[in-house]
Input
Amino acid sequence: MTKPLGLVFYERLMPGSQLANRLQDLGYRVSTVTDLGALNGAVEKEMPMVIVMDLTSERGDVNAVIRDLRGAEKTQHIPIVAFASKANKKAMDDAVNAGAKLVAVDEAVLTQLPQLLEQALEVE
Output
């Protein structure tokens, strides 16, 4: 059986690389993207089961990308788990409005990743 694919977007090495490792430990194949401009193309090409996105970016608006993914017929079904530091509450609120299925703080996304993935992958 093929392992499910999780795509992780991050610019900050920590917690991004830790999340990629954690996903692998949970039995996922992992693809990482560190260039926000390449994210939509990577998602359309690889069609992951879940996307985990760091809301902190120096290169653009992550929430605009979430809106684009939600608006595209080909990618609208892929659940997005977004995360940010506690200090970035506005970005987390905006991520929910943009269409992220779940939003968590950095510390929680690492420690509660299995539960977050289970919730994100629930069929409604």
